[in-house]
Amino acid sequence: MRAFISLNLLCDESISKVLADLNSIGVKTVNSNQLHITLKFLGDIDKKHVDNISKAVEATADVFHRFDMKINKVGTFPRKDGSGIVWIGSDDQTVIDISKKLDELLYSNGIDRENKPFKNHVTIARPKHDIKNINEYLNSREYHFKEQTINSMFLMSSVLTPAGPIYTIEKEYPLISDNL
């Protein structure tokens, strides 16, 4: 199973605006029902490791309260060939703290540590060319994002298809509710 751990987002009207702007200039965007922040990409995992992974995710979720997160930036991760990733992101410290704690607990459960710094972002498009022009276009626009309440972490599976990835929620891990 190809898997990752995420915080899933809703595609509200502010995010829909960015997706529509990208579509208007010919950029194919990701499925708006699959928006997420990848906390940890696990790759292909054996089903026998799911219990250890699940323990680590559950232990992480048991430490953090539900929180409101605001997307506050749009950008690109360009590649040398002109392709890249278009993303929306947040400076929210809670997301960064969750990522660090998760990495620590996964490591204590036998999963390798992340070897690159965490980038708090949601991939919204993967253009094959013109990433520089797309970035300039996005920087010329003004976006006002709304806060989203993050209630849970998710273990997701991913199947790659020619039409794009298909994500499935394998398990949900609720964060601590303040309404006890």
Automatic annotation (TrEMBL):
Lineage, uppermost ranks: Archaea, Methanobacteriati, Thermoplasmatota, Thermoplasmata, Methanomassiliicoccales
Single GO molecular function: ligase activity
Function, in words: Hydrolyzes RNA 2',3'-cyclic phosphodiester to an RNA 2'-phosphomonoester.
Enzyme class: hydrolase
Record-listed E.C. numbers: 3.1.4.58
Annotated motif HXTX 1, positions: 36-39
PANTHER family in alphabetical order: RNA 2',3'-CYCLIC PHOSPHODIESTERASE
Full protein name: RNA 2',3'-cyclic phosphodiesterase
Family under the similarity heading: Belongs to the 2H phosphoesterase superfamily. ThpR family.
Domain Phosphoesterase HXTX residue range list: 20-87
SUPFAM superfamilies linked to this entry: LigT-like (SSF55144)
Keywords attached to this entry: Hydrolase, Ligase
Pfam families: LigT_PEase
InterPro entries, A to Z: Cyclic_Pdiesterase, Phosphoesterase_HXTX, RNA_CPDase
